């Protein structure tokens, strides 16, 4: 299989995933600020969750591809350089937002998510900071009273544990990697059921463990990883999956399922992950789909999508608070204004904060295997 320098369309998919989350948070903040109600609140919550699942599937696909392509090219997976590259990409923005959410945003009324006073946010701040430092934001509301403006960082914690564990799993289970992917995909649901309903499910320890596990969507990443394995191995199954008819069918079914709350609830996340994985593989490797999301503006927005995701919650509150003060403007303006403002902030961050740090990743490129 030829090794592409980059996969087409995936930057555009990143932006779509971020966009679903942002739209959901606009609607959610509208209700929290008492500015409106909507009968489709639950539907948009599931769509926001689907946006995060899309990120996870993409991550599983790309990380697995990069690790195994490196193994083919250089003889082995270099775990430490990989982890250092991930640290340089994820940690600066993550910890910057943690500090803002704990110590700055709560004291700026126009930015702070309502529901907790600044004093309440600062309660037990050393414990909160420790949980964020351990990449356990999902446990912050479970073990403390929470940090509203950093609640969305739970997904970053999930990604970090995946980055730490997945290279080791690929090395340890080198001979049975397809079984590893299937086992993780199925095993997540089995573990979820045991933690939710099994022995000890009412104890505090199991409750805390369950609070972590229910957001540790490694099954979504396994779905993406399975497609990376399939792409690397090639063969008849890959040709079937990359058939244009399969791609069109997966796209139609995905749109149909996501369009109705009842259908999302009926099929569940497991099926949605597989549909996303099929779309990711086809958009990345199907020549007939190569240009669908390759517009320059989509590629740019995908490139800054991490910043879009991290920065958007306080900017949502800012836009809605300002619109509430200028009541002649309809709240529908919130959507384009939030997107434009978040794009501007994320773009500035990428240019002046993230890019200089990202350049350091070249120090952690492993040397090629001698011939």
SSE diagram, text form:
Layout: H1 10-32, H2 41-74, H3 79-103, H4 118-122, H5 125-133, H6 140-143, H7 154-172, H8 177-197, H9 204-213, H10 218-233, H11 236-241, H12 244-258, H13 261-285, H14 296-303, H15 305-325, H16 334-358
Helix pairs in contact: 1-2, 1-14, 1-15, 1-16, 2-7, 2-10, 2-13, 3-7, 8-9, 8-10, 10-13, 12-13, 15-16
In words, what does this structure look like?
By secondary structure, this protein is mostly helical. The protein has one domain. It is 72% helix and 0% strand. The protein contains 16 helices and no strands. Helix 8 packs antiparallel against helix 10 and helix 10 runs parallel beside helix 13. The longest helix has 34 residues. It is globular. The two termini are 20 Å apart.
Summarize the structure.
The chain has 371 residues and is an all-alpha fold. The protein contains 16 helices and no strands.
Mean pLDDT across the residues is: 92
Strand content: under 5%
Radius of gyration: 21 Å
| Biggest sheet descriptor | none
- Helix content percent band: over 70%
State the distance separating the first and last CA atoms: 20 Å
Shape by Cα distribution: globular
Q: Can you write the helix and strand succession as a string?
A: HHHHHHHHHHHHHHHH
Count of alpha and pi helical runs: 16
Structural class: mainly alpha
Uncertain runs:
none
| Total domains | 1
> How many strand segments?
0
């Amino acid at each position: 299989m030829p090794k592409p320098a980059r996969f087409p369309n995936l930057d555009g998919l990143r932006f779509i995933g971020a966009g679903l989350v942002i739209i959901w948070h606009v609607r959610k903040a509208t209700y929290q600020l008492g500015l409106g109600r909507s009968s489709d609140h639950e539907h948009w919550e599931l769509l926001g969750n689907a946006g995060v699942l899309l990120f996870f599937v993409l991550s599983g696909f790309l990380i697995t591809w990069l690790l195994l392509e490196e193994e083919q090219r250089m003889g082995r997976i270099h775990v430490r350089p990989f982890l250092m590259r991930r640290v340089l990409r994820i940690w600066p923005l993550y910890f910057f937002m943690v500090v803002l959410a704990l110590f700055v945003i709560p004291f700026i009324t126009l930015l702070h998510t309502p529901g907790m006073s600044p004093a309440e946010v600062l309660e037990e701040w050393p414990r909160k900071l420790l949980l964020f430092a351990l990449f356990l934001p999902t446990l912050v509301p479970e073990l403390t009273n929470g940090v509203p403006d950093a609640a969305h960082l739970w997904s970053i914690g999930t990604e970090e544990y995946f980055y730490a564990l997945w290279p080791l799993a690929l090395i340890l289970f080198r001979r049975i990697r397809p079984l590893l992917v299937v086992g993780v995909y199925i095993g997540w649901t089995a573990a979820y059921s045991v933690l939710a309903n099994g022995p000890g499910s009412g104890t505090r320890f199991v409750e805390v463990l369950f609070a972590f596990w229910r957001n540790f969507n490694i099954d979504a990443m396994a779905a993406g990883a399975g497609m990376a394995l399939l792409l690397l191995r090639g063969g008849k199954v890959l040709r079937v999956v990359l058939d244009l008819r399969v791609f069109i069918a997966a796209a139609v079914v995905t749109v149909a399922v996501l369009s109705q709350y009842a259908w999302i609830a009926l099929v569940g996340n497991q099926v949605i992950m597989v549909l996303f994985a099929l779309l990711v593989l086809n958009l990345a490797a199907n020549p007939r789909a190569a240009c669908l999301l390759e517009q320059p503006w989509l590629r740019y927005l995908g490139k800054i999508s991490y910043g879009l995701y991290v920065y958007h919650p306080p900017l949502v509150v800012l836009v809605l608070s300002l619109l509430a003060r200028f009541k002649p403007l309809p709240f529908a303006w919130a959507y384009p204004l939030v997107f434009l403002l978040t794009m501007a902030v994320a773009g500035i961050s990428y240019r002046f904060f993230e890019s200089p740090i990202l350049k350091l990743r070249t120090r952690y490129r492993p040397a090629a295997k001698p011939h």
